[in-house]
Recover the amino acids of this structure.
């Protein structure tokens, strides 16, 4: 399944969409690295691995991996081959479970993709990042490569299921090294400073207007 995706599906998607990719050579080929991106569409999680020169793991809902029958097993194998890591998001400790899953990928020397905003942007702007990305970077010593996704919201607008053909641009920034903060992972001030630096880099790459407040998920009250 992994070979099918890597050698057939990914080249086919690149041929169809012909994404413009800049800065892919900035991604370290080995060692732990976090790819921190803006989030414009559900298709983002498929776009990044397709244009990245090394496998990238993302979080996936645990229930996607527990389906029964031939279809359920096929979906689980497909997601595993794509690099998804199952995590239970339906309990009070979902945030900690997500961080633990990401930490596991990084401690094994892998690449881990994350959207610091926590949800897709519904107004086109880049919103304040949650500090989980900083906790992962500080706790594992991983470099952070900021990623700017442009145009994916036109490929799969919110509310649509079938992707459309539209221009896509993916821009990778220079790796950010936060080793200067070694041992300060427990400091909320440091985690916020690191997260803000990452979000500033993403904003520069994506060209989005930055809003210094958390994005509100559908059905939620006012954001903090």
């Amino acid at each position: 399944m992994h070979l099918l995706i890597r050698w057939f599906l990914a080249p086919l998607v690149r041929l169809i969409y012909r994404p413009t990719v800049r800065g892919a050579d900035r991604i370290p080929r080995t060692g732990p690295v976090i790819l921190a991106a803006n989030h414009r569409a559900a298709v983002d999680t498929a776009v990044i691995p397709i244009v990245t020169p090394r496998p990238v793991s993302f979080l996936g809902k645990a229930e996607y991996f527990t389906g029964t029958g031939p279809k359920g097993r096929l979906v689980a194998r497909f997601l595993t081959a794509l690099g998804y890591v199952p995590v239970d998001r339906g309990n009070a400790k979902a945030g900690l479970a997500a961080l633990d899953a990401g930490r596991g990928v990084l401690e094994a020397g892998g690449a881990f993709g994350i959207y610091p905003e926590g949800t897709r942007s519904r107004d086109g702007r880049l919103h304040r990042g949650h500090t989980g990305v900083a906790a992962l970077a500080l706790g594992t010593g991983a470099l952070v490569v900021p990623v700017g996704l442009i145009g994916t919201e036109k490929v799969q607008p919110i509310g649509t299921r079938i992707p459309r053909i539209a221009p896509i641009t993916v821009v990778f920034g220079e790796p950010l090294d936060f080793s200067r903060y070694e041992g300060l992972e427990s400091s909320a001030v440091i985690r916020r400073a690191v997260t803000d630096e990452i979000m500033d880099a993403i904003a520069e790459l994506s060209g989005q207007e930055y809003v210094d407040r958390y994005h509100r998920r559908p059905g939620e009250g006012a954001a903090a």
In short: The two ends are 43 Å apart (CA to CA). The chain has a mean pLDDT of 86. The CA atoms of residues 141 and 179 lie 6 Å apart. The longest strand covers residues 143-150.
